[in-house]
Amino acid sequence: MFVHIRNLAFKYPNSKDNTINDFNLTIDQGEIISILGESGSGKSTILRLIAGLEMPTNGNIMVGDHCMCSNSTFTQPEKRGVGMVFQDYALFPHMTVEDNIKFGLQKWSRKDKKNRVGEVLELVNLEDYRKRYPFELSGGQQQRIALARALAPKPKLLLFDEPFSNLDADLQIRIREELRRIIKSTGVTSIFVTHDQDDSQALADRIVVLREGEVAQVGTAQEILGTDCNFADRMPVKPRVLSRV
Q1: Where are the chain's structural domains?
Q2: Which CATH number is 1-78+176-245 given?
Q3: What digits encode the pLDDT tens for the residues 165-210?
Q4: What is the H or E stretch that residue 20 is in?
Q5: Which strands, in side-by-side order, build the sheet including 82-85?
Q6: In the chain, which residue ranges form alpha helices assigned H by DSSP?
Q7: How many CB atoms neighbour CB 128 within 10 A?
Q8: Cα–Cα dist 5/165, whole Å
């Protein structure tokens, strides 16, 4: 297993109860995992713990042979080799597309930076947009640039927080297959969180259903969602799209 998360627990300082309780998950290299749950289930907190933006109260996270955290070890975020695509893309508005992508390559040589920017722009099919600014791009293009920036340093693991929440429904449907193709072509192991089961069904190799900080179910889209099943029977939310409220 490439990623091994064991007995992970976390509680925010002002909370009486754990946000995450005894979370366990193993992921194969190159696998795309969706963590599916309604708002408040703890799914974004899982990403923050993996990225090193929060420190767990208990548990271990291993990526490859590298211990990211344990009860005695904590690797700083910048040393984890983990890329993250944020919900709002977090592109720097004053930087061109090219400079946004170069931002994570500060220790690379000028030649290697130039080559790598070209590689990832070709991967996301936006080679002609390197000199544009984020405000000159559509929502779908901004998302692909955010993906290119996250992929540029060649991360061990890629994390997505609600990757389609800022896209309209038609674009959301069109870009799912493209995003899966790009991720699979790189072979990078990926985890994305969402409230939308359609996203999970379209993108993920396996789905982790999270309820109140605990794993309720793990399986393929067919096993979790089926073709005719009503997901509302499994979680107390409306069918097809889980509540953000």
Answers
A1: 1-78+176-245, 82-154
A2: 3.40.50.300
A3: 877 777 788 888 889 999 999 999 999 999 999 999 999 999 999 9
A4: strand 20-27
A5: 82-85, 157-161, 189-194, 32-36, 206-211, 214-219
A6: 43-51, 97-102, 110-123, 139-151, 169-186, 197-203, 221-224
A7: 9
A8: 26
